[in-house]
Records
---
Amino acid sequence: MLMLWMPKKSSWCLLALAVVLTSLFAGGHQQDVVLAKDMKFKLHSRDLMPLVGFGTYQVRGADLIKDVLDKSFAAGYRLVDSAAVYGNEKEIGIALKELLPKHNLTRKDIFITTKLSPDDQGEKAYDALEKSLKNLDCEYIDLYLIHWPGKHGVNASKEENSVARDLSWQHMVKGVKNGLVRNIGVSNYNVRHMKELLGNNHGIKPAVNQVEWHPHYHQPELLELCKKEGVLLQAYSSLGGSDNRELLDNAEVKTIAGKLGKTPAQVLLRWALQQNIAIIPKARSQKHIEENIDLNFTIPEEDMKTLSSFSQKKYAWDPDTIA
Ligand SMILES: NC(=O)c1ccc[n+]([C@@H]2O[C@H](COP(=O)([O-])OP(=O)(O)OC[C@H]3O[C@@H](n4cnc5c(N)ncnc54)[C@H](OP(=O)(O)O)[C@@H]3O)[C@@H](O)[C@H]2O)c1
């Protein structure tokens, strides 16, 4: 197995190489390749972040959390994506106590992401970070994201949103300095929000921007900016989100999947990965959990182009409205 060690400036170049190498697996060169489950991106802190993670939005209740995390660790996932607003941090913390030893893992083998609630944007951000860490009951959080560029209860057009997210960032920088969290980043930031933060980062550049990204919604300009700045773009709702089968049932996605001998979900996930974008699919069944990390194949260039040329429509909340 090739170990990835990526110098800071060239993280994105080496990530591209690793993505190509995963495709060789299908050709039988198993000893020289990086499997999707082992692909990592080197963050500004030099921490290595898995490119394939497990999403937990709407995954609630101690039994369900333990069950899906058990299955996902067995399948090879090493990143868990949570958020204060998902209401499952405590259950994840409890499950980890039992599951890490069960899977012969320690805390450092797992990458935990959680997010600042829009309710706590601004002056409450440091307390919110401490609360998430307490809920998760682990020594540190790997990645803490500002969930949304706005502040709950403030009119979207108001400058107060910008002031509040800048204050959140200052508290998060303090959180890194005090050892509560190792990396900080953002979610649902558009190009304008990113440029604002990059121009005034209080000493720490964002590590990650987690955004909606699937064939019906992608933003090449945002990807370019993130690549230029060494910020990892992480896709959410790659399959279209919960209770939405539009992409999974799309005729072109199905045709490409049939041609490659893969499922539509695998094609949608590999499409993002092949653009050097991290993914965090959510699934409940063992079959889905396993197939969503079994992504060692290549989508031919012409099919990548077809998938990238779908009409654009947003499924999730729209940050462009936030000043
Ligand atoms: N930062 C943000 O604002 C934000 C917003 C949304 C999501 N997220 C994060 O991103 C994660 C993923 O996004 P998402 O939860 O919206 O949706 P998603 O991963 O796009 O889709 C999840 C849905 O797809 C189904 N599914 C999973 N694997 C499948 C497969 N192989 N074949 C067919 N169906 C499959 C799941 O059903 P089953 O559960 O029945 O398997 C579930 O209904 C979230 O869980 C969360 O961690 C972040």
---
Amino acid sequence: MKLLVIRVLLLLLAVATFARWAPSQTAPKKVIIDTDPGTDDALAILLALNSPEVQVEAITVVPGNVTAQMGLDNALKLATLANRCDIPVAGGAQHPLAQKLVTAEFWHGKNGLANIELPTRCHADPRFGPDLIIELVHKFPHQITLVPVGPLTNIALAVSKDPSIVPLVKEVILMGGSISGGNVNAAAEANIYNDPDAAQIVFNAGFASLTMVGLDVGNKTLLTDRQIAQLEAAPGPMSHFVAQVGRFLLELSRRFGETGTPMYDPLAMGVTLDPTLVTTQAMRVDVETRGQFTRGETVANRTNTVERNVLRGDRYVIEGMDKVTPNAKVCVDVQAQRFLDLLVSRLHGK
Ligand SMILES: [Ca+2]
């Protein structure tokens, strides 16, 4: 009798475990895209909205490539283009935490969307972006993947206001940073450079999983004439728009002697759809917030060790090496062709 009870209990436990496990394996990932749209942001958003692996719970807008207001307008235009006015699109921070905004019309066109005019039918959600993030993380504990593809201001505001969301976020997959030099200057990548204080908060918030999709891999995923021609050959409003954006970016890249244009933000979404696209290495990453030449650099510890220097009299003596705990999975390689094929296949004919 006692044995039977134990067997029944074990069976119930197995069923309960399976019931918990099964939906997470089959149901799409719930994602919040935090974005500063932005040409490559636009492509990342459209990739997400055409991929069954993810369900976009919200789009929150952060100032970066363009101002907060222009970014919000653009996000609404993209939701309109995808016929997805059901997705909450919310504005957030109006400026970086502790510095002036640097906008990038130079790279994204004067309207932030490659100077392509799109209509708007969707309306902004009245909630404040960081509050919406907090609300959704509590509504779906351990289920939300945050995909920040702009400066990290909104995410920093959310975790500062309500640190209890940190352990409830399933994972963070962000576009930003670099361990091999910057694109703004020698040291800094643009998203991190635009709010290093926010980035340092986010990297050290203690998320269970934080993947850094930086320049190291983004610079390897170059959209070229071949993919753009494939998109141009396929009818559909979204593929047409993506091809136009691709043409704009390619022309810009050619002016700087490049034959392709890097798909930074779309790659972060690609990694969200299929983590096997990249190779990652666990590292301790801190963000330089004060350096004379390096403000905004993601300083990554490859060995996750630091020397232990102890004061002995008038000098320090190295007494050994201390371990530091990694806080990020840094993408160090990417299957670029496989990613570009995925990007094109999802948007082709849409
Ligand atoms: Ca962006």
